Amino acid sequence: MPDAHSSPASQPSARGVMARAPGETTEIDPAWEAREQRVRVLIVDHLPEELKKLAMDLMDSLRNNAGVAERFDAFCVQAFSKPEWAVPASAVIGELFEDNEDRLAELARVPDLVIELGCGQAAVACTVAARWAARGETHRLSRLAESIIAAQGTMRNAAAVEVMLALAGTLAVSRPSRAEQLFNAALPAAEPEQEEAVADARSWLETGRVVCSASQEVRDLWDIRLRRPRTAWKWETDEERRALAALADQIQPGLPGVERYQRIVPGCWWDVVMSKARLMEQLEKERTLARASQPADSATPLVTTQVEGAEVPESRAASSMRSAWGDDLPPGVNPRASGAARVVLGWAAGVFMMALTALLAPDGVYRLVKDIRSVFNPAPVALTPEQLIENHKRWRAATTQSMAQAQAALAASFQAAKSGSWKDMEGLLSGHQENLPFTSDGYMQLLVWLHLDPPADVETLSRLPRLLLNRVDTQALALWERLVYPGSPNAEHIQRTAREALAEKEKTWDKDNTERLRQIADGKTVTATAE
Questions:
Q1: How far, in Å, CA of 427 to CA of 521, rounded?
Q2: Which of 200, 347, 350, 480 could form a disulfide with 316 if both were Cys (CB 3.0 to 4.6 A apart)?
Q3: Cα–Cα distance for residue pair 364/481, rounded to 1 Å
Q4: What is the CA radius of gyration of the chain?
Q5: The pLDDT of residue 352 is above 50
Q6: Whole-number Å distance between alpha carbons of 277 and 393
Q7: Sequence-ordered strand ranges (E) for 12-152
Q8: 163 and 147 in contact (C-beta within 8 Å)?
Q9: Which whole-number Å values give the CA distances from 100 to 2, 56, 62, 135, 322, in the listed order?
């Protein structure tokens, strides 16, 4: 880039043309004259008659450094009006601006780049996107990504897919939601020889997911630093400390994508955070083993509470609620509830209950106890398919009502998401708002509520299952199993997400959860339970 303090007389305008003061003549670089001959050949031999004069005018403007923006726009408006013209036009533009990519990046328009990519060419798009990335203009890259996604039906060619994958990797940290969309759009059209590009984009997406719930300011800081791993960062300012705090909240052993963070943060800080994460993981494993080793018919309670002076066992449902909500049960849940409300379930019922109590509002938990007892009744009553479906519908309606009563604080966000479009609600639904960040319980409850009472917007409806899966992982299965039934408004979208997730989760989930995911994908989760 030219020196910011250089005089106008020494500024290269394009292709080595040296512009003097306004109104004066220009000094032509000999290299430009040689290149001009090549451009003329391209124009004469390859451009249609409708574009030749416009191209010549643009070349003259560059030579004289006058009216370049107007001539460039006039050429592009015509050149990119027909796909068959876009290919030779891209070649001419690439040749004209070969040594002045920064100026091309200023002049280029996103719609023209999208048309070029749709025609199987990427010379101009690659040049412009590279300059935008180098200058940190992620807002322009994000707009380009949005336009590509909107026109993804025309992007079924190798050049476009290559750009989409590169752009997904570039936006993965600063604009994770947009990057995920771009990657998912590119993946079906990727060819075997693009395997390396796919792997690189996927790696950066994993890196971006680690801090996807952080503020834009924090994500931008991480984006800059992750791409400059050899710089010795100080980590002393308030902004840097906030970034470290956001990262510490997300780190856990084996979490994909943390390797890049480890390379740039202080080693001692990383060791302390990982030690804490391993300790928490070990404690959770011990709790799980303790629950698993408890016999189903054992009279020995896991937790005891005092009810009217007598010591009685606390139900596994309440115990699992304590695990999900912390030491204090949420408002409305009485630790001295009656024995009917605190029935001791078997271990299998407890596992099922734990998954749902982590997702559903507290008031909805007790409503589920009756259903769960029926599921594990030693002598279940066989129901007709119609009765089974009706059971699921009643459960859905009752749980939705409980959710509405228990989550009044989320009502405004729920109504906005339910009635709005994905374009308007993307920030909220992706966990990028300060009042409902990705890691918050409120954000999780909002996704569950929208699963129970789905929105009308088709794109939002199709994205909700993936958003919930990203947030709660295996815990999503318990809810999905209750919502995949004939006539369910979001069954199709849940099943599609389950099919997509099978290949991803098969290597990281245990066999039981993988099989549950497969059953959901196949729509085989409606079980014969009686109320």
A1: 28
A2: 350
A3: 16
A4: 30
A5: no
A6: 40
A7: 12-14, 17-18, 27-28
A8: no
A9: 11, 18, 11, 14, 63
Contact 203, 257 (CB under 8 A): yes
Q: Cα separation of 355 and 242, whole Å?
A: 32
Of 264, 179, 281, 157, nearest to 221 by C-alpha is 264
The C-alpha atoms of residue 356 and residue 451 are separated, in whole angstroms, by 13
Per-residue pLDDT at 248 exceeds 80: yes
Within 8 A by CB and 6+ apart from 117, the residues are 125, 148, 154, 155, 157, 159, 160, 163
| Rounded to 5°, angle at Cα 315 from 361 and 353 | 45
**HSE on the CB side for 1, CA within 13 Å?**
8
Distance, CA of 411 to CA of 339 (rounded, Å): 33
- CA dist 40 and 59 (Å) reads 9
CA-to-CA distance for 14 and 64, rounded, in angstroms? 9
Q: Tell if the pTM clears 0.85, that is, is over it.
A: no
Q: How many Cβ atoms from other residues are within 10 Å of residue 317's Cβ?
A: 24
Q: Is residue 41 a contact partner of residue 59, using CB atoms and an 8 Å limit?
A: no
Alpha carbon of residue 233 to chain centroid: 28
Give DSSP secondary structure letters for 122-149: -HHHHHHHHHHHHTT-HHHHHHHHHHHH
pLDDT at 156: 87
Distance of CA 507 to the CA centre of its chain: 21
Beta bridge partners of 12: 18
How far, in Å, CA of 355 to CA of 385, rounded? 25
